[in-house]
Amino acid sequence: MADPKKLFIKTYGCQMNVYDSERMAEAMGAQGYVQTEVLEEADMVLLNTCHIREKASEKLYSDLGRLKPLKAERPGLKVGVAGCVAQAEGEEILKRMPLVDIVVGPQSYHRLPAMVRAEGRVVDTDFPAEDKFEHLPARKALRGPTAFLTVQEGCDKFCAFCVVPYTRGAEVSRPAERLLREARDLVDRGVREITLLGQNVNAYHAGGWTLARLIRELAGIEGLDRIRYTTSHPNDMAEDLIAAHAEVPQLMPYLHLPVQSGSDRILKAMNRKHTADHYLRLVERIRAARPDILLTSDFIVGFPGETEADFEATMALVRQVGYGAAFSFKYSARPGTPAAEKAPVAAEVADERLQALQALITAQQQAAQAAMVGQEVAVLYEKTGRRPGQMVGKSQHLMAVHVEDAAGRIGDLVRARVSASAPNSLAAVRIPD
Ligand code: SAH
Ligand code: SF4
Ligand code: F3S
């Protein structure tokens, strides 16, 4: 028998792309492709791209440029571009990059095997009526005790800066029964923690199901110890979801709740449809339901029209909330979005603000980690540590923890006492059962 063909996948962008890459690898697996980490031996290279900021998109073109010598050496090499840049630029990619054979948008992944078999160069950026996930093979490749599960895709929010509603299309929720089936199957194969994914995951609604109801039902699956979800929009934090944080022990005390800005003027210009005060009151209600919850967020600095006072309002909001961590980005004008029409803030000003905000967030992250020293945490081991006798996993708050544990195995969920805090992780010692 001939050697199996080899597939090299590179994933950019968000966790939904990570999930999609896994599913595409499985679809190609059914066609006889095995995944490789070695680019030089690949028969097919698939770049699963992100369009969110200019830098992310440009990365695709520099990576494609670097593939040129390989393609020259191996003319049979198939090069595919998937993900949000594929959706946004479609045919343009073929024109600009002669070495690309396949351009496939995020809703058409189930058609990838047929595209690979096709002669010549092909583009598919439809939003087909069928559910791509239903047409992809069942999950196979698992990477340890944690897994992602996409429950909702697309976005109807149209924040003025964001490409996602255009690249991923309208909000669509997957039927609850299918998700429960997929979750049970994951748990049967050793998964103990599932992170539910969606561009707007808390807007999940399917035939009378809300995200809270889905979480309660998932919590009934024997062996599923931890449930998380991301990313949430403040306006979709429904009462039943907040209540789930109080009542469902499997739902981890962690919430990524992007706010983008602390200035009402900028929030309005961003079309976020809530005020800073609304967000702060929401945070209070969530903390009342689950006092030990750790909050994280996303921020954009230098949005068109942002004044010093607007930026100060963002800093004030961050001080008031106290985050466990946060991502902050310099505004990037994206073609086709309403904000891209407006005059930008000077780059030096935006740079300065980004630095100030990042310093504040880093200090808060350090404080949140330092507060864990001496505390007991629950850690799900995902890999072995660099040193023998050390295991690495995540705490209930999604903090990375290195645990001294000579008997630990991947997949164990243990109690440990935190002994020290490093810049991006905690050190801990296993507490015997
Ligand atoms: N659906 C999620 C976010 C998806 S994009 C939500 O609404 O929270 C992830 C983050 O990228 C956003 O929260 C935002 O902070 C950032 N982002 C999106 N568009 C951007 C742009 N044009 N420039 C800079 N950052 C951007
Ligand atoms: Fe983009 Fe806003 Fe939708 Fe998030 S809610 S994906 S930031 S449009
Ligand atoms: Fe990027 Fe698309 Fe995700 S633009 S952040 S890969 S939804």
Describe the 3D structure.
The protein is 34% helix and 23% strand. With 433 residues, the protein is an alpha/beta fold. The chain folds into three domains: 5-124, Methylthiotransferase, N-terminal domain (Rossmann fold, 3-Layer(aba) Sandwich), CATH 3.40.50.12160; 136-370, pyruvate-formate lyase- activating enzyme, CATH 3.80.30.20; 376-430, Nucleic acid-binding proteins (OB fold (Dihydrolipoamide Acetyltransferase, E2P), Beta Barrel). α8 (211-219) packs parallel to α9 (239-247) and α12 runs parallel beside α13. Residues 13-14, 16-17, 50-52, 83-84, 163-164, 167-168, 199 line the site of FE3-S4 cluster (F3S). S-adenosyl-L-homocysteine binds next to β15.
Q: Mind telling me the C-alpha Rg?
A: 22 Å
Strand order of the largest sheet: 2-1-3-4-5-6
The proportion of residues forming helix, as a percent range, comes to 25-40%
Please report the number of helical segments: 13
Compute the separation of the termini in Å: 50 Å
Rounded average pLDDT: 95
**Beta-strand content bin:** 15-25%
Number of structural domains: 3
Number of strands: 21
In CATH terms, the superfamily of the largest domain is tm_1862 like domain
